[in-house]
Write a structure and sequence with these properties.
alpha/beta; seven-stranded parallel sheet; 8 helices; binds NADP nicotinamide-adenine-dinucleotide phosphate; about 15% strand; about 260 residues
């Protein structure tokens, strides 16, 4: 296993300037810190201004709410002026709330779709014109293994992640043809503020440092899908092709 405490040389990584949303905590923050430790200039965005400050000399804060498309576009323009052309953008901003069927309201569904899905769409809309003009760049977003198939309590979150996986599949062929690379990152459970309140077992729970290292490695290798941890992903990919009768039988036994 790579020792992330030792900075690797910049020549390992194909990017000089990376923009990361959702970088105030969790996976996004850890990716930013690891990239900066390897000599990459990182523009970090999230709503919490204070948490974006003091992340090191190569990390610059660009506070932002990804649901505000004008702010997204203005931020991209500002980063390009202040730091230079964005080689890679990683959209990690996300929200999660379990759905309780005894208090079923549309609001959490709308909120998660707004942040998780439309937040990414907003960022893509700002990046496509500039990367398209350069015929270069990688746009990556964090979906989740929860997007592979419907899971209990995830009726609000899961569809946003399924939509993000589908979005990546839909855009990849055409964007390839104009020189823009797309990647979708599908983590299993990672120990971050997002999963802190979970009151159910989280199999194969990973540390954010490992998730970030796997994310960076996969993206640097130019993979379309970066999914981890391998054993959990394999189990869930097999579950994806099971017939409904068997899938629901297994899910009821495993989760409910
Ligand atoms: N942890 C897991 O087990 C897991 C598994 C699979 C996928 N994921 C996905 O990985 C990504 C990162 O999650 P995480 O686990 O690292 O959670 P996290 O620590 O809660 O990070 C979420 C990030 O999103 C930002 N954010 C939320 N709403 C935003 C908005 N409207 N505009 C801009 N930024 C916003 C948060 O910062 P502010 O509150 O400061 O804005 C924070 O930086 C998410 O997309 C999540 O769905 C997580």
């Amino acid at each position: 296993m790579e020792n992330t405490s030792h900075a690797s040389p910049l020549r390992d990584l194909p990017w000089k300037i990376v923009w990361i949303t959702g970088a105030s905590t969790g996976i996004g923050r850890e990716v930013a810190l690891q990239l900066a430790a390897r000599g990459v200039k990182v523009a970090v965005s999230a709503r919490s201004v204070d948490k974006l400050e003091g992340m090191g000399g190569l990390v610059k804060a660009y506070p932002l709410d990804v649901t505000d498309v004008k702010a997204v576009r203005d931020t991209i323009a500002k980063i390009e002026i202040e730091l230079g052309p964005i080689d890679m953008a990683l959209m990690a901003a996300g929200a999660y709330a379990p759905i309780d069927i005894t208090a079923f309201e549309p609001e959490p569904f709308a909120h998660m779709m707004q942040v998780n899905f439309l937040g990414v769409v907003n960022c893509i809309s700002g990046l496509l014109p500039i990367m398209g003009k350069r015929r270069a760049g990688r746009i990556a977003w964090i979906a989740s293994v929860a997007g592979y198939r419907g899971l209990p309590k995830a009726a609000g979150y899961g569809p946003t992640k399924a939509a993000l996986i589908n979005l990546a599949e839909s855009l990849k062929p055409e964007l390839d043809s104009i020189g823009i690379k797309i990647s979708v990152v599908n983590p299993g459970f990672v120990e971050t503020p997002m999963t802190k309140g979970n009151d159910f077992p989280m199999p194969f729970l990973m540390k954010p440092e490992d998730a970030a290292r796997r994310t960076i490695e996969g993206l640097a290798r130019g993979k379309f899908e970066v999914a981890y941890p391998t054993r959990f992903v394999t189990i869930l990919k097999i579950a994806r092709v099971l017939p409904y009768s068997l899938y629901f039988w297994l899910i009821k036994r495993a989760v409910l």
